[in-house]
What does this fold into?
Amino acid sequence: MDSRELRYCFGRFATGVTVVTYAAAGERYGITVNSFTSVSLDPPLLLVSIDRRAKACSKLEGTPFAVNILAADQQELALHFAGRPQEGLVVEWEEGEVAPRLGGVLAWIECRPWRAYDGGDHVLYLGEIEDFHYREGQPLIFYTGKFTSLPQVMEESA
It folds into this structure.
């Protein structure tokens, strides 16, 4: 199977963009992740998938973390935490109850580690949700290897 072609196939699934943040050795870190999903409401669980080659992968083992869902105007943050530092970017950090998180994001979800599973060339980290917050706004979207945004957010129907 051609892994590049499989990657292109997966790229046809539009995803939101998140930055997973955590603390290690007294420093705050983050990694851009688009493999994120809800898992369970009872108990409240979510999943992030981290490439084994990423520095964050081993640091997340047993570490509280926050998933920060980026807004449409936060592409620079996504690039920065994807290993492409953005000149002049000031990262707005907030200290959460469980893990450090980013300011100004569309939503954040703080988690305690729940389980980690082998996912081939990735590790699947499940977090138990301790706290969360969200606001209205446009999400940053990743589709076919590019950042984009929704043309409009559909209003919730009552």
Summary: The chain has one domain: 17-146. The first helix runs from residue 3 to 10. Residues 17-146 form a domain with the Pnp Oxidase; Chain A fold (CATH 2.30.110.10). The mean pLDDT is 92.
